[in-house]
Design a protein that fits this description.
The chain is α/β, with parallel strands linked by helices. It is globular and about 60 Å long. Strand 8, helix 11 and strand 9 form a beta-alpha-beta unit. The N and C termini lie far apart (60 Å). Strands 1-2-3-5-4-6-7-8-9 form a 9-stranded mixed beta sheet, with helices on both faces. Helix 7 crosses helix 8. It binds beta-D-galactopyranuronic acid. InterPro entries: AB_hydrolase_fold, GCE-like_dom.
Length: 385
Amino acid sequence: FSFLLTCHLLAAQNYDEAKVPAYTLPDLLLSINNQRINTAKQWEDIRRPEIISLFEEHVYGTMPKKFDEISFKIKAENPNAMNRKAHLKEVEISVKNHQQSVIINLILFTPNQTRKPAPVFLLINNRSEKNTSVTRDTISGFWPAEQVIKAGYAIAAFYYGDAAPDNKNSFQNGVLRLYPEQLGSDNGMKAVGAWAWAASRVMDYFEKDSAIDASKVTIVGHSRGGKASLWAAAQDQRFAMCVTNCSGNTGAALSRRRYGETIERINTTFPHWFNENYKNYNSNEKALPIDQHMLIAAVAPRAVYVTNASEDLWADPKGTFMAEKEAEKIYKLYNLKSSLPDAPPPMNTPSLKPPLSYHIRKGIHDLTAYDWEQFVKTADLYFKR
Ligand code: GTR
């Protein structure tokens, strides 16, 4: 019976543009108490903090800022990895709070060709750990380390399961052990919050590693990892650039369009990703005080690269582009000109120029060498390399 009920309640997903409901997006430039936001300072002092709090309260859960202790241990090191092209470090990031601890295992390759601290790409790895093999016995487009090293960047990754198992019954067995109070509260963070939290602990490590230029860290995430990379970059302003790849619903796509995956659908399939309050918006998007354009805007004035794939309608490529386009308003407050076209660019024709970049790749929901090639080009422009 309950199975039938669930099927009934979960209406078929819409892929018809004509059936996208009429909606009004919450105004980026109007504060909760109706103050018009006209300057970058007002944005930073009033509206941006308000937006971050709204996302914490209604979507991703509160982001804990404190812990008792953090330590970094180099577990293994090879200065001549990748045929001497890179220096490999395997770092154990251990964080303690309330007598509990969590370990995030970081894999980091830095390029040997340069003596200067290197800018770095950090991937939240939500696929097989084989993708980030330290022996390089598996080389995949999901984390093309050789390609990135060759371009003069460091490349790093951690496995998301270290921070929170991606499972509705066991997501608590990670970062949340440190913050048990979050579990009982409707605005407590769950898995996506924990993945983003872990990215910030890696940032803590980068700030201590002299081989890394911590002012040039690009956080990369694909799909559920792309929801986490966007949330991480939105609230932790130390990330210089954010790549949110095929992140779709509750990532870079506008929820109010109800195109492809919906809030109800994501909360039903993945009840352990977002906070309890978010379930109040199942089939009730209009009641949300935010939409995802505001999350992209919260990264401003830093760089954001949003991607989609042509066969990934589930992630609503059009709604994703529209969300990024809306965020232009905030970059404008900083006198930063966006080069985004008015409508999504054709397939495999990236709009690369930072601070707002976008592409739609031909093909399926994935993170590929093609995508990384564009991220590197954008980083070259953004970091003026
Ligand atoms: C899907 C989910 C998407 C996306 C994707 C992924 O099942 O509906 O929101 O996160 O998984 O992570 O690959």
